[in-house]
């Protein structure tokens, strides 16, 4: 895909530390914390990870090595609507996860010679997920466990969210409650900052190059992001 000739589309990328947002949280206003980006169908999970790191660096622990970012597709449940239900609902589809450091050597400082083979779905694209314009992407940020090991992806489904990414609309409300008001991004109406008039990527983090791999240890500084790249979408199976 030529991103210079293919127009991008808008995508809302939601985030939460410790767990995914519940589907009913997307029915309230304001929407849960998110960033708005413009991307393409070939945008993959690694690229989305770079975008989150660039736009909201405080969301990741310092150091970020060993942090798992799990992704989920959020889309309207058309089967529920066709069954005659009047209340809109969202369905979810797990897309996979990316581990900062790629799960290679160095994640465990006490075991530098062992290679950890971790599931990594960073090359999966929005097109692979059958993303349709108007769908959402939700990201659960899972910091390393207390012993320094990488948190399993299942923690995003069973864990309890905390801190960054908690939906203000859900605090003190029932799941069907609403506070009303305009949708905002992280409490502000500003879109994500771009370079080169929006054609060069997201602050240099939109590349589809791999998240840092190799001899990286927890506690070391991540290398500078690779040059800017570009990403866009279709429908789920």
Features:
237 residues; mainly beta; Ubiquitin-like (UB roll); 5-stranded mixed β-sheet; 3 helices; 17% strand
Give a quick precis of the structure.
The protein is mainly beta and 237 residues long. The chain has helices at 45-55, 78-82, 155-158; strands spanning 9-17, 34-39, 68-76, 90-99, 136-142.
SSE succession: EEHEHEEH
* CATH second-level architecture: Roll
Low-confidence stretches: 103-109, 111-117, 169-210, 229-234
Oligomer: single chain
Into which percent range does the helicity of residues fall? under 10%
CATH topology: Ubiquitin-like (UB roll)
Q: Please state the overall shape, judged from the principal axes of the Cα atoms.
A: globular
Q: Order of strands across the biggest sheet? A: 2-1-5-3-4
When the domains are counted, the total is: 1
CATH class wording: Alpha Beta
What's the CATH H-level superfamily name?
ASAP complex, SAP18 subunit
Descriptive account of the structure:
By secondary structure, the chain is mainly beta. The chain has one domain: Roll (Ubiquitin-like (UB roll)). Helix content is 8%, strand content 17%. Strands 2-1-5-3-4 form a five-stranded mixed sheet, covered by helices on one side. The two termini are 22 Å apart. The model is unreliable at 103-109, 111-117, 169-210 and 229-234 (pLDDT under 50).
């Amino acid at each position: 895909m030529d991103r210079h000739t293919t127009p991008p589309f808008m995508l809302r990328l939601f985030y939460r530390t410790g767990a995914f947002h519940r589907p009913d949280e997307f029915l309230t206003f304001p929407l849960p914390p998110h960033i708005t980006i413009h991307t393409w169908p070939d945008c993959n999970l690694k690229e989305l990870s770079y975008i989150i790191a660039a736009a909201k660096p405080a969301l990741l622990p310092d150091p970020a090595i060993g942090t798992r970012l799990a992704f989920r597709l959020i889309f309207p449940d058309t089967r529920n609507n066709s069954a005659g239900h009047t209340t809109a609902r969202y369905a979810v589809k797990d897309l996979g996860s990316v581990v900062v450091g790629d799960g290679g050597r160095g994640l465990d400082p006490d075991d530098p010679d062992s290679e950890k083979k971790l599931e990594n779905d960073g090359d999966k694209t929005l097109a692979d997920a059958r993303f349709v314009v108007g769908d959402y992407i939700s990201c659960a940020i899972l910091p390393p466990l207390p012993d320094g090991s990488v948190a399993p992806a299942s923690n995003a489904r069973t864990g309890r969210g905390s801190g960054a990414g908690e939906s203000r609309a859900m605090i003190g409300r029932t799941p069907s409650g609403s506070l009303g008001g305009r949708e905002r991004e992280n409490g502000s109406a500003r879109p994500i900052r771009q370079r080169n008039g929006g054609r060069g990527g997201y602050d240099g983090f939109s590349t589809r190059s791999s998240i840092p791999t190799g001899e990286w240890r927890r506690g070391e500084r991540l290398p500078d992001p690779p040059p800017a790249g570009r990403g866009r979408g279709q429908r789920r199976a």
